[in-house]
């Protein structure tokens, strides 16, 4: 209820209900609701708050009570009420223990990954957390470079293949989930010692090693089914990536460059997507792949600064520890090479101005990100990491628009040649 003014409430002693005179909303109260009634059911609690965004004021007017707005932005409902609506309050008074407690008892319809996870059966929730279902950022970061490759490989003047975009979207979800399981299986003992990861299902013992292995088998089986929809060159190329997927978690044990290993692994889909359209790996996709690998090294190096103190105690290696106070200098160099790789790819494919506009926005975003990030603030590192989801989309739009305009440019070039 998003009401900008106070509303009069009239207590009905017979029906034990409160009638909103202005909006015609009837709020039913359980007779035993201690939050709103005292033992003799004659007065309201004066200082308790509604988690839905309202509270009773201390003032009286002609024996009536006021229901004042109590602004919780995330709790504001954008629904305009008309007529009479019913809303049942918990009979045990828990509605006044805070908005979080009340939200748990009155589930609102939501399609966010976190809401879906919370609404799923309890037995399924550990598996969803195991594949990071409630944290889709990893899936997006795997998916966007694949879309770049699909868009750049499309014929001039054409949109990217929708079927391939769908296949690679599903593949990104299942392979990211499989990668998370492999990582957690290798790092189960390490994760127990890290504050951010100690509650993961395998580390906490919520799932057994065998259960994780079964879930991994299911994810890889679906991924194989998706891969088999492509040509055989792409199938072999995709199967080769399993060596990287399985061995990547070991990199942090032997080298300070696990982020480089992650970049090589995570962006393998760039090569697969290109070969799915063109039939093989060609020169333009090599520079795109290099740019994508460096992009991963940038955002994952920022991300790894969240755990650098735990990593030092445990003995795990990362670029955050390798670069130390010079992290921004290193990442600036990576970003420069990345932008150069994207530009070289555009030149090789005769891209048009929208593509270069996307590259420019990408460069500006990276510059701002590296300039403003506080590498000693875990929350800021996480926020900068998450911001890369939108950046991937911007680059994709630039690629699609640039490819569509290539036909107009080619026609203009042909007319100039005739003249």
Written as H for each helix and E for each strand, in order along the chain, the element string is: EEEEEHHHHHHHHHHHHHHHHHHHH
Tally of contiguous helical segments: 20
The proportion of residues forming helix, as a percent range, comes to: 55-70%
The global form is globular
Radius of gyration: 28 Å
How far from one another are the termini?
68 Å
Biggest sheet features: 5 strands, antiparallel
Task: Report the count of strand segments.
Answer: 5
Percent of residues in beta strands? 5-15%
Uncertain spans:
1-97, 101-106
Question: What structural class do helix, strand and pairing data support?
Answer: alpha+beta
Mean pLDDT comes to: 79
Give the strand order of the largest sheet, numbering strands 1, 2, ... along the chain: 3-2-1-5-4
Question: How would you portray this structure in words?
Answer:
By secondary structure, the chain is α+β, with helices and mostly antiparallel strands. Helix content is 58%, strand content 7%. The chain has 20 helices and 5 strands. The protein has helices spanning 99-105, 113-119, 125-130, 137-153, 162-186, 188-191, 201-204, 209-227, 232-247, 251-254, 258-266, 268-278, 283-304, 308-314, 319-323, 327-348, 353-372, 378-386, 388-404, 406-418; strands at residues 7-12, 17-20, 25-28, 54-61, 64-69. A 5-stranded antiparallel beta sheet has the order 3-2-1-5-4, with no helix packed on it. Strand 1 and strand 2 form a beta hairpin. Helix 9 packs antiparallel against helix 12, helix 11 (258-266) crosses helix 13 (283-304) and helix 13 (283-304) runs antiparallel to helix 16. The longest helix is centred in the middle third of the chain and has 25 residues, at 162-186. The model is unreliable at 1-97 and 101-106 (pLDDT under 50). Its cofactor is Mg(2+). The chain crosses the membrane at residues 207-226, 232-251, 260-277, 283-302, 330-349, 355-373, 385-405. Keywords: Isoprene biosynthesis, Membrane, Mitochondrion, Mitochondrion inner membrane, Transferase, Transmembrane, Transmembrane helix, Ubiquinone biosynthesis.
